[in-house]
Design brief:
The chain has 174 residues and is an alpha/beta fold. It has helices at residues 33-42, 59-70, 104-107, 119-122, 126-136, 150-163, and strands at residues 4-11, 21-25, 46-50, 75-78, 87-89, 92-94, 114-117, 142-145, 168-171. 32% of the residues lie in helices and 23% in strands.
Length: 174
């Protein structure tokens, strides 16, 4: 089983990048963006970017920075947190305590080529979803998945493992 490494982003002042969000390593306790890429290449660790399940924050910037720093080609983005009643349907956040419709693909616009997979596609199973992932991998870096249940998330994870094993994942659950 692959080891999972979690990272968060913090605003740090460093040289010419003053005020930019840089990855902060929970393991070593330092802003070590120069070391992330080398570490990611040297290990078989699975990377996961955790973010708020109500889609608050600068998700696009955070996901984009992680792609760059980890030298990854794809981000698997599935923000569902079924135990809290939160998920994604038609790209829109489904949650009890949100105001307005938050459309994740719109929030991520401008951060790279994106393909969104609807709930009907996810529920076709991991094998078919993996096939579809392979088909769009050359055109999209950001891959957004509708999911409402733990079973939906399991399908997304299995498909990503089959089709894009070197992608990093981003979502609301660790």
């Amino acid at each position: 089983m692959a080891r999972t490494t979690s990272a968060s982003l913090e605003r740090r002042s460093c040289g010419g990048h003053q005020g930019l969000a840089t990855p902060f390593c929970r393991h070593c306790g330092a802003a070590c963006s120069c070391n992330y890429g080398g570490y990611a290449q040297a290990t078989r660790a699975r990377w996961y970017k955790k973010f708020d399940s109500t889609l608050r924050g600068q998700l696009g910037a955070e996901i984009s920075v992680m792609l760059e720093v980890l030298a990854k080609e794809h981000a698997i983005i599935a923000p569902a947190f079924p135990a809290q009643g939160r998920g994604l349907r038609d790209g829109i956040l489904v949650a009890e305590q949100t105001t307005g419709a938050l459309h994740l693909p719109t929030l991520l616009a401008g951060y790279g080529p994106l393909t969104a997979f609807g709930l009907a596609t996810v529920r076709q199973g991991s094998e078919r979803l993996a096939h579809k992932l392979r088909q769009v991998a050359a055109q999209a870096r950001l891959l957004v998945f509708d999911a409402l249940t733990d079973a939906d998330l399991a399908v997304v994870a299995a498909a990503a493992d089959r089709a894009l094993p070197h992608a990093y994942s981003a979502g609301a659950r660790a």
